[in-house]
Every structure is written in structure tokens, then in C-alpha cells.
Amino acid sequence: MSYELTSSGEMDAVTGVHAVHDLRRESWQTAFVRRLVVTDAVAVVGAVGTAQVLRFDGPVDSTLAWPLPYDIGYSAVSLALALGWLALLHGYGTRAPQVIGTGSEEFRRLVSASLRLFGVLAILALLFRIEFARGYLAIALPAGLFGLIAGRLAWRRQLRSLRAEGRCHTAVLVVGSPEAAHAMATAFTDDPASGYRVVGVCVPTGSGERVETLGGASVLGDDRSVLDAVRRSGAGSVAVAATDHLGPAELRRMAWELDPLGVDLIVAPGVVDIAGVRLNHRLVAGMPMLHIDRPRYGRAKSTRKALFDFCFAAMVVLLSAPVLLAIALAVKLSSPGPVFYLSERIGRDGVPFRMIKFRSMRPDADTAVDELIAEHGGNPVFFKVKDDPRVTPVGRFLRKYSLDELPQFFNVLRGEMSVVGPRPQVQREVDTYDGEMRRRLLVKPGLTGLWQVSGRSDLSPEDSVRLDLSYVENWSMVLDVALIARTIGVVTRGEGAY
């Protein structure tokens, strides 16, 4: 495959145009990195200064204990430690444009650099018989890490707000087959926090009927006219999705030609809904290979998860006992009928159980569901309607903030549910499952999950299934804790529930 090359004069002109664009594209990144430098310096200097003051009961400059006949005060040690810490943060690329603002790699590098620094100090102390004050180091390391992470989180929160307003994005050109390009463009559009704004798409010649837009972006040409599309769209990055038309040699040539334009090249491996903990990359004969670990069904059924579920549910029930009592009284006094609503759900391995909720609808709600489905033309399998007339006034408030689901912690204590897991399903939904969808039944259903923090009732049936399967295959204890934390924010705001 060949690409049309311009003359040297034309290339100089193009390079000049894109140099201006590149400066504009990187201006927000430069400003963001400067803020990170200041925040990091404040966190590190504050941590070592605090450690010195607390360990030595004030600003007294104690002397370092070591065998050489030179007196070195801890003020000099603190200065050297702070400078070394900041230098290592820079050397580990914790402020590289590829990692700042999104994902976990930024924090991984930050923690790795910090631990490496204190590991080196421990080795030096052993080799040269330097006796650092243990309390000094024991305060400096956690205080510094806390300050560094807190600063990064604060700036990331501001960056997320700016990106939600359409600012601080990198313009990206998507290249690939129509299906893969559409999926990638849609993913970028649906996730503004990723920092990419799709400005065009290139699809291979002869890939089917001619289309003008994909994933909401204009088709600017084929995979032989990428450079021209970059020039016309002003893209700062090129993202290559799965395509049979671009092999290793073509991708390398594309990287060469994009380099003088200051344009980054991103290659997607063509896999979706795979957690980072399951991905490992390595080079084989000069070719990057992506190894995907097996799905984590077994780990999601581990004793560790069951123990966490029981302890967490017991703690919530004990702490929320007054709230549970108040809700029960409100339900009982506001409308006739029982306090609790028991509904059959399908649990792990297809075993049914009775899920407990506070009643939020009138007592005859189940008998009226067929009439509502016929009236609203909804999906009988995944039926959900806004402004449901069966919901009571108190029930509407409970459903908005998911308070009606608090009794499900008793299901967790009984071993029928997990705190985090796929959505609990009714029999009519399970009856429609194909082989892929039945994987949801490999683990216990949960009170919350990816579906809860990604839209709740606003999700389409297809997205609900995809998120549940992604959780089942990618489970980890860290994921559970993260989803619980995110659920608290979503529920507090009352987003997507009705």
C-alpha cells in the first residue's frame, strides 16, 4: 500500500500549518502540566517539611546519623529528598500527555516512582550504614503520596468538567473498516472524559456502499488519503481501528509520515470490554502482541468476595437501622398494602430467590403491567416506563434515590445476592437468554454494578447486557470497591432512576 507524497515545498507548508495547529492542540496540555508541577511540588515539600517538624518536635535541625565525619542536618536531607522525589516523578513520566487526565496509568507511575525513591533510600542506608529517622520516613512517604494523589484527583475533576463543556480535547481522525470505525467513533463520542473529539473518519476503498458519516463524524476519505484527511480536519491524533487493509508495514509508514506533522498514532487492538488487569503486552519478533487473560468467572465466585459481601452488608444494615425503620413507617402510613415487596428473581446458576424491596407501587401493580406494556408499546422483556402511574408518591422518592433497594442487603446476608454484580433478572428476561447472555448467571446478581453507575434506568437493554457481561468477565475486588464508591455518588444525585 502506498501513500501520495507531496513535494518538499508542499511538505514544508503542511508542516508549518500543523506546527501552528500542534501548538494550539498542546496549549491546554502545557498549562495542565504546569499546574501538576506546582501541585506536586507543594505536596512533596509539604510532606517532607511536615515529617521533619513532627518527628523532631519543631523546626530544630537535627543531625543525620552516619559514619562520615560531616554533620548534615535534616533540613538538607529534606531538601535533597524533595528534589529527588520531584526529579523521579518527572523521570517516570507521571506528567506525560499520554497518561494525564484519564485512566489509572498516571497513578501507577506516581506510586511506582515514590516507592522506588524510598526503596533506594533503604538500600543506601544499608550499604553506607546511614541511620535515617524511621519516624521521619514513615510520615513523609504516606503524606507525600496522599498529597500527590489528592492533587491529581482535584485537577482531573476540573479537567473532566472542562471536557464536558467541549474544551481541552484532542482532535482525532479514526481509520478503519466501517464497522470498526463506527464503533470507535461512537466510543470516543460517548466518553468525553477520554479527551478525544472525533473530527473525521477514513474507511478502506471498496468496503461497501458509500457512506458520508459514521458514528456522527464525516467520512473524509479512504485509508490511502489519511494525510490529506489529517490536513483538512486538523486532527492531532490518528486512531486506527481493526482493518484488513493496513498491515504492519503500512502502519509503520503511516507513523513515519505523521511524525513531522506532530500527529500521534493510536492503534486499537480490536477488543472491547476487557479490563486492563487482563491485558499484557510483549514484543515477539519485533511485533507487539496483546495477551488477554482468561475471564474471571471463578474469581467472582471466590470466598473472598463472599466474605466481603457479608461483612459490608452487615455493617450497612446496622448503621442504617433507623433509616430502614423510618422508611418502613412511611411506606405503611402513606398507602395501603404491605411494607415489603417480594419479587422472584433468578440468581446464580439459574436458581430463583425472593428479592426484598420496600414497596414503591400500589398493591395491584403486577396485575396492571400487561396493560401498561400494551399502552406504551414497551419491550415486555425489559419493561421500564417513566412516570409510571403505579408508583406511589413516597415510592417515587424512594426509587429516585434507590432507598427502596436497601432491604436487598438482607438478600446479601442470606447469600442470595452480592453487593456488586449483574442486574437481578426476572424469569421472563432469563427465558430470552442466548448462550452469551446466560453468562450473567455465572455469578450472583448485585445491588449495584456497572449498570447502576452507567445510566441505571436510562440504559438500553443492549447496553445493560453488555455491561453485565463485562463485569462478570473482568471482576476484581478493586473493581467492586470502585463501583461501590461511584454508586454512592450516582444514587446521591438521583440520576437515571424512575
TrEMBL record:
Keyword terms, alphabetized: Membrane, Transferase, Transmembrane, Transmembrane helix
Main location: membrane
Residue ranges of domain Bacterial sugar transferase in the record: 305-492
Classification via Pfam families: Bac_transf, CoA_binding_3
Membrane topology classification: Multi-pass membrane protein
GO CC aspect terms: membrane
TM helices/strands, residue ranges: 32-52, 72-92, 113-130, 136-155, 306-331
Subcellular location: Membrane
InterPro entries: Bact_transf, EPS_sugar_tfrase
Superkingdom of the source species: Bacteria
PANTHER family referenced in this protein's UniProt entry, alphabetically: COLANIC BIOSYNTHESIS UDP-GLUCOSE LIPID CARRIER TRANSFERASE, SLL5057 PROTEIN
The family this protein is said to belong to: Belongs to the bacterial sugar transferase family.
Protein name (record): Sugar transferase
